[in-house]
Known about the structure:
The protein is 72% helix and 2% strand.
Amino acid sequence: MTQGVTTASAMVRSGxxxxxxxxxxxxxxxxxxxxxAITLLSMLLRSATAVGGSCADGDAGLADGPCRSHTGAxxxxxxxxxxxxxxxxxxxxxxxxxxxxLFLAWPVLALTLGWNFLRDGFDPPMxxxxxxxxxxxxxxxxxxxxxxxxxRLSTVRDAHR
Length: 161
């Protein structure tokens, strides 16, 4: 017994502190790695549009040309990292009792893709005029990203009234 605290209860408390420190680290790393995964997905989209909008590795006859090196592997890594980050952020926020920022994942991804499509629609990499298909895709992704975000923010605002 140390200053009125048993050794077992001191270990439980220090284990709780250690768990919270680990959860904070996992939460921070999960958010940072999730942002990196979304950035990688955005870069992969840019590389696909740079070669005409579609590409394939191997003997695919539907694509315009070959993909840049290791695009498929990078896509798998980015998606796996994003899913792992969602789990890590969910666990870290639950342990800490912190607000869960997971509702931001879809809007961030959709708004990023929408921005890329609009950018390529108004200034296509191949040098043509406006690419209407990219502009329409960009608007659709902007709506898909902005609608849930605005809906969530309005419900949070109404809850505080």
